[in-house]
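User: My advisor asked me to double-check a structure prediction for Enterochelin esterase before group meeting. I don't want to rely on an old file, so could you generate it fresh from this sequence?
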Amino acid sequence: MNEPVFLKRTIVKQTLWSEHLQEERKLRIYLPPGYNEVLSYPVIYCQDGEEFFNFGRIATLAGQLILEQDIEPFIIVGVEVNVAVRTQEYAPFGNRFKQYLSCFAEEIIPFIEHNYPVRRTRDERIIAGDSLGGSVSLHLALAYPRLFNRVLSLSGAYYPQTREILAQEEDLSWLDINMVVGLQETEYTTDTGVYDFVQMNRDTRSLLESRGATVSYREKDGRHLWGFWQKELPESLLYFLNK
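Assistant: Sure, here is a fresh prediction for Enterochelin esterase from the sequence you gave:
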């Protein structure tokens, strides 16, 4: 049996030197069926790049959306992370947080735009993440609103420091965020404590909406695991890609 056509895709691995982080950073880039350098493509940037590809199966899901649901082809960039320093890079209290934001916006984005035919307006860019990856995606949009206004958040880890930063914002009418959280995430243990992710996401939604952000929000049966997020990814992607 031949593989279904949507499994035939190209995934390129690249390594970038980051001056901000003073180390190499690995990227995985999904090029859609029929990829042509003469064309231009919307682009999705993912935190936890390795997990989005391996556990989220985002490349397979992308092929299904493009070939079965007639979604315009798009490119995916997965930014890999060293799990040992993930909280230091993704959490606003981390000692590598500012450097990571700078690396993402000032090094990764220009690198991709130089090497691949991705579109360069913020309406054609989605920034996605799970847990703390969802949180850092929102922080990237807050820090670089000219680059990012579309955030895809899977069970975002919106710790108190993030909500304090949000509370200082006055006008978020430019921001469009898609949030999902699992109803069984009420007592999830992280490396910084035990959190009620449902309440954390509800509180963050309220903060965002009160400042004018467009928030698409849903709660579903699910745990803080890729098994849940993988099932929810197509709906979250379609929210942006259908616009």
